[in-house]
Design a protein that fits this description.
Elements: H1 10-18, H2 24-41, H3 49-53, H4 58-70, E1 79-81, E2 92-97, H5 103-117, E3 124-129, H6 134-137, H7 141-149, E4 153-160, E5 163-167
Helix pairs in contact: 2-4
Length: 173
């Protein structure tokens, strides 16, 4: 009888060959975000159109707090930004840019964390976002290049309720 850990799928082999393996705990975070996004799209979380027109995001914000609570376990593996509570720093940082947290805010948090708060410690920064807007990314390209020169690997995972994709920062990725 074969152990399940010995089972390799074609995708596993290709990932191993490409060297772009996403850690299991990152995939678990992505799954949690997908679940959260699915819940925000369900009928129980729909806002009244009048509330949307007035900019009301109370239900989504409250639900974001729930997502952060669900992700407290990540602290064992990585710094979770924006909610890292202790001073211990990991080589990995996960920056959440979902729901009411705009992509521009997520980019700023990633640069601040990797370059300032965990400088010299942070080796990999994972932005997990539900949007990708070139206008929000372009102002940070010099920062991204500077972090890469310092040896920080940057990963951008765009997540929807139905899947995710890693978006490369440069052609060389």
């Amino acid at each position: 009888m074969s152990d399940a850990r010995d089972l390799w799928m074609v995708g596993d082999v290709l990932d191993a060959m490409s060297g772009s393996k996403i850690p299991t705990y990152i995939l678990s975070v992505v799954q949690e975000v997908q679940t959260w996004l699915s819940a925000t799209l369900s009928e129980e979380f729909f806002l009244d159109p009048a509330d949307l027109m007035s900019g009301n995001d109370r239900q989504i914000s409250a639900d974001l707090e729930y997502l952060f609570n669900q992700l407290e376990w990540v602290g064992v593996h990585a710094d979770l930004v924006p909610i890292t509570k202790d001073s211990s720093r990991h080589e990995d940082a996960i920056v959440l840019s979902v729901g009411p947290i705009l992509l521009d805010e997520g980019m700023r948090m990633m640069v601040d964390h990797a370059a300032l708060f965990a400088s010299g410690v942070c080796k990999r920064a994972w932005i997990i976002s539900d949007t990708w807007i070139i206008g929000d990314i372009l102002p940070y390209m010099p920062h991204i290049r500077a972090l890469k020169k310092k040896g920080v690997e940057l990963h951008f995972l765009m997540v929807t309720p139905w899947g995710y994709s890693e978006i490369p920062w440069t052609r060389e990725q």
